[in-house]
Write a structure and sequence with these properties.
alpha+beta; six-stranded mixed sheet; OB fold (Dihydrolipoamide Acetyltransferase, E2P); 699 residues; D-amino Acid Aminotransferase, Chain A, domain 1
């Protein structure tokens, strides 16, 4: 091919990228539509004539493809958590005040519009878009790269060859939503639903027909160390990302905010802390005039060092809060109030209400949090109440609309635990049962230990735990490792299969990674996220962690990224409990993993370039997550459905429809025994096959 042709194609691509950024990101067109179309058509013709010019990040990829695609799962490499919620400006201001008290120096805050769209994570390598992934469950999302490439507001090539991960919100403008909805036989309820449907179109050419846009608001890179969030926003804009122009920035004084903002080159609203209430009010009142839907505001601490010090819970960052404008409401009657006892002894009142439809579901039970919450509402049984779905998910009692006519007064917490009769104690806003041997607490601890994401003990759900406890078979986590499950055969629905599954799952706990074991202990505020921070920070064995607790070394824990003083103290106090030490000793004696290890290091990448689909149940693995890790550690990729691109279907018991699909497409099907042999889990280990590259031939 003539070098001038390749040079011409690259010139056209650079011109088109510049035009697209100017039009979709900067809102200042550089050329006419006719001139843009002329160059676009010229580049398309060259790429068709010379296939070797093909580039997935070419501006021509905006039109998409008619090829069907699946949406494989991808493990996020950055935090993609939810946000804590507030429903009044006073609550936001209270959070700001508490954050300032907690920090050791002056703070500033960024207030962003909460776009009502689809959360998206964009992964770039050397400045090129390589992957676009939905939020999913916050840890694993679906890769929808081909569809996101069709969006003109998503840069395919950045202004610098940087490795960076960017979070943003994909949305559909209101006018475009109305225009598209008019053409549909079954119109969508709102722009967000239509946008979500477009993002998941099987053919990217169909996704390209929906004029989606994006605002980006977070960036993660090891290349540059940023001191604050507005620097990140400025850098994202420099790279070519579209930043919401309606962001507010607030410091102690307006002059300080204006000075710091001018250093970044950003043109944002700025002011003092006293201006925040009016800013929230203005945004609330003016949201209907926006070209896109927003359902609230997000207030963030600006300083990165403070964010790292504040850290995260298992659900949300402690350095940000979402202010939701409103929540769906309905009215119902409180029929009764029950008391629940959690695994830590916390007592939670729960209102049993007359079932009522709200936000697409029927509400019958509503958490009342604690006695203070009930007192604020002056809530009594028989009252008519207004309820809402906070965050569109969690039902809450907002107010008492009409008092009952039965003479019932404000509900009062019982004096003793409903489970064991022990006198309750109050600690802060909550009541607790101090009896460690309380039946409800014991059942809760066992259920948590066995649950998915902890020890993944298949078949040991809450109902089974309750049966085992109430009949005296198992009274603690420790008892699980001494109990002979075979004696359950024929009892209360325990057939051979279930008993064998329980026994096999218990045996498999010895192979459960240390991080899951540590999470399963149920230490206060130490979910998987905190455990990952702990292990990554060098405390990667149980002995190291116990040594910290023995020395009461809060300072060393606080040096670990995202672990603050409160979390450090809770961890040490939890580990120094006699009950916890007894449990850890039992788990150690039972052969459970007591140190972290990167099993992926040094593993031959025998599945490199292969896509695996997993279906059915397996005898040697308590969950499919474990199988997925084995495959990905060896270079493979796990997908959720069988397609023409799938290399292998790993089929366990009761494989179902995916087996038929694999047969239809001619996809290789592998059973559990063959898989175990390949990964070397049995005594019979095959001789290496293939070309010596480390990748095993499967066909």
């Amino acid at each position: 091919m003539d070098p001038t042709i390749s040079k011409k194609a690259e010139e056209l691509r650079n011109d088109l990228r510049e035009y697209q950024k100017a039009y979709y990101v900067d809102s200042r067109p550089l050329v006419s539509d006719m001139e843009y179309d002329r160059k676009f058509d010229e580049l398309s013709a060259l790429e068709r004539q010379y296939p070797e010019l093909s580039d997935p990040n070419s501006p021509t990829s905006r039109v998409g493809s008619d090829l069907s695609s699946d949406f494989p799962e991808f493990h996020h490499t950055v935090p993609v958590l939810s946000l804590d919620k507030a429903y009044s400006s006073d609550a936001v201001l209270s959070w700001i005040e508490k954050s300032e008290d907690k920090a050791d120096h002056n703070l500033s805050f960024v207030v962003e519009e909460k776009i009502d769209g689809i959360s998206m994570v964009l992964y770039y390598e050397k400045g090129l878009l390589v992957r676009a992934v939905t939020r999913g469950n916050g840890f694993i999302g679906n890769e929808v790269t081909s569809n996101i490439r069709t969006m003109p507001s998503v840069p395919l090539k950045l202004s610098e060859p940087v490795d960076i991960v960017v979070r943003g919100e994909v949305y559909l403008p209101k006018n475009d939503f109305l225009a598209i909805n008019k053409t549909l036989d079954e119109p969508y309820a709102n722009p967000r639903n239509l946008a979500a449907g477009a993002v998941r179109r099987i053919k990217s050419s169909e996704a390209a027909q929906v004029p989606l846009s994006i605002f980006c608001y977070e960036g993660f890179t090891d290349t540059i160390q940023f001191s604050d969030h507005i620097q990140i926003l400025s850098y994202l804009k420099h790279l070519g990302f579209r930043i919401d122009p309606n962001i507010g920035y607030f410091c102690k004084t307006e002059a300080e905010a204006r000075k710091r903002l001018s250093e970044t080159g950003l043109d944002l609203v700025c002011g003092s802390f006293d201006d925040i209430p009016m800013y929230i009010k203005t945004k609330t009142q003016g949201r209907k005039a926006l070209a896109y839907e927003i359902d609230g505001l997000v207030c963030k601490i600006n300083e990165i060092a403070v964010r790292e010090a504040f850290g995260y819970t298992g659900h949300h960052p402690r350095w940000a809060i979402a202010y939701k404008f409103e929540a769906p409401q309905a009215q119902t009657i409180v029929m009764g109030i029950d008391v629940q006892v959690g695994r830590t002894g916390r007592i939670t009142p729960v209102a049993r209400v007359k079932p009522v439809a709200l936000g697409g579901s029927t509400i019958a039970n509503i958490t009342l949090h604690n006695q203070d919450y009930v007192d604020e509402l002056e809530l009594a049984i028989g009252d008519t109440v207004a309820i809402s779905k906070r965050g569109d998910v969690i039902p809450a009692v907002e107010s008492v609309v009409e008092k009952n006519e039965d003479g019932n007064t404000t509900w009062v917490m019982p004096a003793v635990c409903p489970s064991c009769g022990t006198e309750l104690v109050k600690n802060g806003a909550h009541h607790f049962c101090p009896n460690y041997d309380c039946p409800m607490q014991a059942k809760g601890r066992i259920s948590f230990f066995a649950a998915k994401g902890q020890m993944d003990i298949e078949g040991l759900g809450p109902e089974t735990v309750t049966y085992l406890y109430d009949n005296g078979y198992v009274r603690s986590i420790e008892d699980l490792f001494d109990f002979d499950f075979s004696i359950l055969n024929g009892l209360h629905g325990f057939g051979d299969k279930k008993v064998q599954s329980l026994s096999a799952s218990m045996a498999a706990t010895r192979k459960t990674p240390f991080r899951q074991v540590l999470t399963a202990l149920g230490l206060p505020e130490f979910g998987r996220k905190a455990v990952d921070c702990l292990c990554s920070g060098g405390l990667d064995t149980m002995d190291k962690i116990l040594d910290i607790a023995d020395r009461d070394d809060v300072d060393s824990l606080m040096k670990i990224n995202q672990i603050g003083e409160k979390s450090a103290r809770l961890l040490i106090d939890g580990l120094n409990s006699l009950h916890m030490r007894s449990l850890i000793a039992k788990l150690r004696a039972s052969g459970l993993q007591m140190e972290d290890s990167n099993d992926a290091e040094g593993l031959s990448q025998i599945f490199a370039g292969q896509s695996w689909c997993i279906t059915g149940s397996f005898d040697s693995f308590s969950s499919r997550d474990l199988i997925t890790k084995i495959i990905t550690d060896r270079g493979g990729k796990a997908v959720s459905a069988v397609s023409a691109k799938t290399t292998v279907l790993l089929a366990g018991h009761n494989a179902g429809s995916k087996l038929a699909k694999a047969a239809e497409l001619g996809t290789k099907v592998m059973d559990e025994d063959e898989f175990l042999k390949i990964i070397g889990k049995t005594e019979e280990k095959p001789e290496p096959e293939g070309d010596g590259s480390g990748q095993m031939e499967l066909f």
